Amino acid sequence: MLVEPGSFDTDIWTRNVTIGKAALDPSSPNKERSQRFSQFVKSRTGKHSNATPVAQLIVRIANNPNPGLRYMIGCDAKVHLWVQRLLPWRRYECMITKLVKID
């Protein structure tokens, strides 16, 4: 089974923003990009929904004798799925890189 949550208020936003020392080295070609991504993630920390509904969904799935394959939860997860289905991958990827400021 797949549980595909959108953006929920968990520590993933602070854990995943850790940037390697090499990327932050002044001579790194990725220094500015890494800093922009880090700032993007930090600016959204605490702006997400409480993750309790995700935990409740997982409990329901675990108690279901005949669970489905895919469970999407959160408005943004559903939006991302539809955008991925409608746009060619290259265009979707370009949109996401601009959104998270790593272009």
What can you see in these coordinates?
This protein is mainly alpha-helical and 103 residues long. It has one domain. It is 55% helix and 12% strand. It has 6 helices and 4 strands. 1% of the residues are buried.
Main beta sheet: 2 strands, parallel
Decide which structural class fits the backbone. Answer: mainly alpha
Order of helices and strands: EEHHHEHEHH
Number of domains: 1
Approximately how much beta-strand content do the residues carry?
5-15%
Shape type: globular
Task: State the helix count.
Answer: 6
Low-confidence parts: none
Strand order of the largest sheet: 1-4
Q: What's the total count of β strands?
A: 4
Topology:
Layout: E1 2-5, E2 8-9, H1 12-15, H2 21-24, H3 31-44, E3 49-50, H4 52-63, E4 70-73, H5 75-86, H6 89-99
Parallel strand pairs: 1-4, 2-3
Short characterization:
This protein is mainly alpha-helical and 103 residues long. It is 55% helix and 12% strand. It has one domain (2-99).
